[in-house]
Amino acid sequence: MDARHRPSTDKESPIKILQNVSSEIREWERAVTVVVLRIRQIGVLIDRLGPAMDDLSELLDAAKQIAETAEGLAVSAKGIDQSAEIIARDAEKIAQALPAVERLGRLADRLPGGGRRYAAGR
Question: What DSSP character marks residue 3?
């Protein structure tokens, strides 16, 4: 134990005892003042933390929306790729059939009543 907190074996004067008590009260007052200051600082930090947490929550929501959108885009991109393959295959088939269609058109033009028909008066 600290010498100030040990019971005195010598008889101390009441003034000396009061001076010791007064000194300890001042130490406690300084300690309490420091604690109160720290509590206030923590309060300020908590006040600042609230809006930061709100911002963080909004950022997390936005990140979730971006992830969901990216997921949907990936699905759409896969569908577009599949459609592009089908279109490319069909375009190739059309290109292969085009000469035959042109020959068929020329043949139809040679048939009686074939060829381009114009509306009356033109």
Answer: G
